[in-house]
Each structure stands twice: as C-alpha cells, then as structure tokens.
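User: Sequence recovery, please. Input:
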C-alpha cells in the first residue's frame, strides 16, 4: 500500500523553485496569506508594509525580511 502524505516531494516534477520574476501570475495582487505574513515580518523588522505589492514583489520582500528577522531557513 502506498503511503499518502500531506507534504509533496521536493524532487517531484513541477515542484522546482521558480524565480518570482518568472511567475506567470507574479504581477497579480499578493495573496491574503502573503499579506498577513509580510505584515508580521514588517512589524518585527520595524519596516513599512506596502499593501499594494504584487505576488512576485511580496515573495521577494518576504525572503529579504525572513533573512533580516531570522525567520528564514
């Protein structure tokens, strides 16, 4: 019997990490989840939150603030 997991395999086709600049939907408004997390990171880092960011820009900002706040991997 195959084991079913909630976590997709990192090496599975289609799970490659893409540069946010290459996302086909990167110019759309950031998601609610991105906005919530980004707002938290901005507060922790003492930086301004921009609610008008795109998905791609929010992703890049999240990465930068994770590094700054120590929340990154």
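Assistant: Recovered sequence (73 residues):
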């Amino acid at each position: 019997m195959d084991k079913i997991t909630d976590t997709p395999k990192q090496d599975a086709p289609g799970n490659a990490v893409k540069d946010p600049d290459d996302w086909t939907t990167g110019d759309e408004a950031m998601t609610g989840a991105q906005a919530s997390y980004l707002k938290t990171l901005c507060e922790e880092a003492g930086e301004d939150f921009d609610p008008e960011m795109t998905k791609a820009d929010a992703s890049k900002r999240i990465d930068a603030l994770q590094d700054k706040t120590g929340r990154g991997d």
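The radius of gyration is 15 Å.
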